[in-house]
Structures are given as structure tokens and as C-alpha cells.
Fold this protein.
Amino acid sequence: LFSSCQDEVEIYEENVPVKAIIPEEDKAIIEQLGLDLSTLVDKGDDYQLEGDIMLSKEHLREYLNEPEEGKTTKQGYISNTRLISIPKSRNITVRIDPAIPTSGSASIWRQAVIDAVNAWNSIGLTCLKFTYTTASSADITVTREYSSDNAIAWTWLPNYQKPSNKIVVNSRYDNYEYQANTLIHEMGHSIGLLHSHVTPATEGGIVVPGTPNIDDSSIMSYNRDRTLLPGFSKYDLFAIRYLYPSKLPYINVKEKSFSSGRYTLTLMNHNDFPGGIRWELENAKMTSYFSTSHDIEILR
């Protein structure tokens, strides 16, 4: 619209997107999580990072509820410290939301879910077990939405030792060739794995000893060959078994044993576990993580 005065011109444009102002505090938390801040997109209730990793704004600060020594943002093989609990890892139920059609091109996502579940269960020598179910109480629901983003699918990271409760596939890619590999990748995020096509050292993280800093053949890499199933590299298998071994020595500490303060726990027979110990604090706002030391400090 133009004003009638020739000396003053006012222009009003409709449907002009307004760039969201992201709080600096949120940016700082995301940086501490070891995710690439340059990829940050505000999605309303969530932040989207690195293409397919979602973080809930409501629960963003909860990702940092861990002891100071546990704040290595990527622990194990390109994985953050927010792993799921051992009891939960033994039976992770997965369901397909009715939003995914049972016929037509989009229905292929249903078979892709089954293929992905079978792929994870084929690894062996790990406590991880995924179970397909139709129950609405499933741990992970695979659903379908449309997005103009390039992401084929996306999910959230674990919180409170539980896997992401939802994986979303992009209906824009119903005819995409690599659905099963993509779902395997997203299931990796749901249990705590991060991307393996970046160098963790630049993001405050570490890798499992004996694995490379970057593994482009990994199921967690954007550069992998997505035509191969199940798509796991040899280092994927090594790392998954390291993070979630079939017989894992770990210490479970009940919340009622602690009040506010600082505590140090010591495992006396630590030499029996040279690969590291997994400590878990039950029913508390602290996520589980590994320690290669027999001493661990807990902040409450």
C-alpha cells in the first residue's frame, strides 16, 4: 500500500516470515550438548539441528541435568552421555502410527519400520532389543508429517534414560529409496547416538577407543552408502556393543540414598572391568553415562 503523500512511501508486505529470535541461553545449552549451532532451526516447540535431531524447548535444560564430570557431550562412539537405561534397552517397543497409510506409496514406510527393527536385532552381543508392537503404549512411535525441509526423518534425543518417544518420517519423501536405512539411523539417535560424519573433538566429545574420529561408512553418517542393509559399519557394531553390551557391569544407585550435596562413589573391584563402568542413578534427574575410572562424583 502506498500513502497519498509523495514524500512518504510506506510499503506493507503480507506473509513475510519473521526470523525467530533464539535466546542466548538456549544457544549456550545446545553448544554444551555438542551439536552444530550453525544448523539450528526454530521449529516452534522444538529446535532442529544437523538436519534430523530435535530438541524440545520445554525440556531443553533437562539435558544438562548431570554431574559436571559427565558433561562430555559425545561419549562412547559418537554418542552423547544421554544413553537409555539398561533395563529399558532390553525391550524397546516400536509401533507404527495410523498416520502412515496401509496402501499406496507411503505404505512402504511400514515395511521400512519392520526392516529397521530387524536390523537392530540382528547385531548380536548387545543388550539392545527392539520389539514391534501395535500397542499405543509403545516406547517409540513412528509417525508421518510433511515438511519442506530436506530431512527425510527426524527424532529427539533420549531423556531421563528413556529413548525418544517419536520418530517422524517426512511425507515429502514417500518414494525415497532409502527408508529402512533412514529409520535405522533415527533409531540410533533415539538411543543416544550422534552423527559420525563430524569430528567429535571439535565439539567437546570423545570416541570409543579403537574407533576412528570420523566413520563415513557408519549408519550414523550422512555420507554412508544408503543402498546397503542393514548399513552398520564394523565400528558401529564395536561401538554399539561397547555402549550396550550383552553383559554389562554397572552400578545402580537408588535416589533415596542421596540428599542434596556432592558424593563420590568408589568401586573396589574396578580392575575386573577394564572396559569401563556404567553408573546409573535411578528415578532422578541425572542421565546415565560411562566412566573409565573406578571413582565417580555425583552432584545433587
